[in-house]
Amino acid sequence: MNHKYGRDLFKIDCGDFYLQEFSIADASSIYRISNQPEIAHYLPDWKSSFEQRLDWVTHYEIPANKAFLESVAKTGNVEDRMLKMGIFLKDTDELSGWCCTGIKEELPEPNREIMYAISSEHQGKGYATRASLGLIRYLFNQTNVEILNAIALVDNASSMKVIEKCGFTNHGQVTIDQEKFHHYRLTKCEGSLIE
User: Fold this and answer.
1) Which of 67, 99, 162, 164 could form a disulfide with 131 if both were Cys (CB 3.0 to 4.6 A apart)?
2) How far apart are alpha carbons 181 and 192 in whole angstroms?
3) First and final CA of the chain: distance in angstroms?
4) Interatomic CA distance for residues 32 and 26, integer angstroms
5) CA distance 78 to 71
6) Per DSSP, what are the bridge partners of residue 149?
7) CA distance 77 to 132
8) pLDDT tier at 190 (50, 70, 90 boundaries)?
9) pTM of the entire structure?
10) What is the pLDDT of residues 132-185, one digit of tens each?
11) How far is 97 from 172, CA to CA, in rounded Å?
12) Where are the domains of the chain?
C-alpha cells in the first residue's frame, strides 16, 4: 500500500527516502513487513495478526509518538518515551521498513535504544544505515539524549554492519530472553563526528 506524504505528520528527510511517524494507514504495511520470515526471526515481538497491528498502531504507537514529539517541542526531555517512524521511499511513498527509538529495559541505564527493520525487497540498499543516521542526528540535536544503545543477535551480521557504520562501539554481549546479543553504544560526542 502506498502512503501519502502526510502534511501534518512529523518527518525527517533522508535524501531519496524520508522517516515519518506511524499513521493508521501504515498498519497493513507494517503487518506485512513484520511477518516476513527474515524480519520475524530477528524481531519476533513485531509479528502479529493484522487486527493486533492495527490496534497497536492506533492505540499505542500513534499516541506514544505524539507524546514523544510534544516533549521535544516543549523541553527536549524525552524521558522514557518512544518514537516509531516508517521509512518511506520518496518516488513511490512506499513504506519499506521502520526506524525507532525507545527504552530497552534489559540494558543498563542509560538504556535508550535505536532499532530498525527493512522489508526483504529493499534490503542491501543502505536504507537501514541512512535511516538510523537520520534518527541519531535528530535525537542528539533535538533532544536531551546523550547515549544511544543498539543490539544485534550474534548471528545477525547485516545488523552488526549497520550499527558499526553508524559509529557505535561494541560493549560486549548481553543475554536477553535466553538469546545472546552484541551490545553497542554511541555517545552524543561520538555522534557529532558522523557525517
Assistant:
1) 99
2) 26
3) 33
4) 10
5) 6
6) 113, 185
7) 20
8) confident
9) 0.92
10) 999 999 999 999 999 999 999 999 999 999 999 999 999 999 999 999 999 999
11) 27
12) 11-146
How far is the C-alpha of 59 from the C-alpha of 25, rounded, in Å? 14
What CA–CA distance (Å, rounded) separates 28 from 129?
A: 24
> In sequence order, which residues have a C-beta less than 8 Å from that of residue 58 and are 6 or more positions away?
24, 27
| Beta-sheet strands, E only, within 62-126 | 83-89, 95-103, 112-118
What band does 119 get if pLDDT is binned at 50, 70 and 90?
very high
Q: Which residue has the cell 520518496?
A: 90
Task: Decide if 188 contacts 147 (C-beta within 8 A).
Answer: yes
- Grid coordinates belonging to 145: 539524549
Residue 1's pLDDT band, with cuts at 50, 70 and 90, is very low
In this structure, the dihedral spanned by the alpha carbons of residues 99, 120, 92 and 16, taken in order and rounded to 10 degrees, is 50
